[in-house]
Amino acid sequence: MAVRLNEDQEMVKLIREGLKKTGGYCPCRTERTEENKCICKEFREQIADSGFTGYCHCMLYYKA
Ligand code: SF4
Question: Domain residues for 13?
Answer without folding.
Answer: 3-63
